[in-house]
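Before a colleague's protein record goes any further, I have to sign it off. What it holds is a sequence and that sequence's fold in token form. My question to you is simply how this chain folds and whether the tokens agree. Thanks in advance; the entry in question is below:
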Amino acid sequence: MSACEKNKEEHSNMHLKQPKDLFSRQAAAYRQYRPVYPPELYEFILRQVKDRESAWDCGTGNGQVAGVLSEYFQEVEATDISENQLRNAVEKHNVFYQLVRAENTYFDKNSFDLITVAQAIHWFNFEAFYNEVRRVAKKGAVLAVWGYGLFRINPEIDRMVNEFYTTTIGAYWDAERRYVDDEYRTIPFPFPEEGEHKSFTISKQWTLAELEGYLNTWSAVQHYERERGENPVKALIEQVQSIWQAKEVKEVSFPVFMRLGRVV
């Protein structure tokens, strides 16, 4: 049975700023090209969790994290504000998807042993979300939030990408992106943290076409294209083609950063 308690009247009077849904239009591409988190990240989190009855993956997107957690927990609740993302989510018998915002769920009190947020907390209303965490987490539960920054390939390509990131589409990033650039060091985090600021690495083997597909999932690219009527990624790819052949495979590395605390 799902841990979701359908008590909508209790929460329907909350008035919060409308959340940003930036990824519904590209849900299929998001699932295809977004990086997969390394096993060491999950191993680190699971070592901190006392019980493995129920987990909540908040801002689940296509369910990547929820699918992994389903192998370790009896039940996983996975929520997002994007209906299209949830339509493209992985299917597991013990993962229950809900179209609901992070700050205002219908879960029972004291429901979860682990709460995860991957590459999403910077979009949340921090105070309201943390209040919801306190309500639905079991005493001693773990809250793990993480994200990944700008990838690295080699110095020459990195210079081109950095110029694209900061200059070409720099003005089109939402203000919340600064938390990712700061590796979540500057987000409010009111829970006692377990250990030091943890970091991991995602390593991918990509063709140039896969790099292009990933870049097109960036929200700033979508903003640029809607405002200016052209895709800025094409010009960057034309630059990179001078040193990256179409069938050539290159290693792409993403830095992963994490904040992990205990709800007491």
Residues 3-16, 20-24 have pLDDT under 50 and may be disordered. The chain is about 35% helix and 20% strand. Residues 8-151+175-201+256-262 form a domain with the Rossmann fold fold (CATH 3.40.50.150).
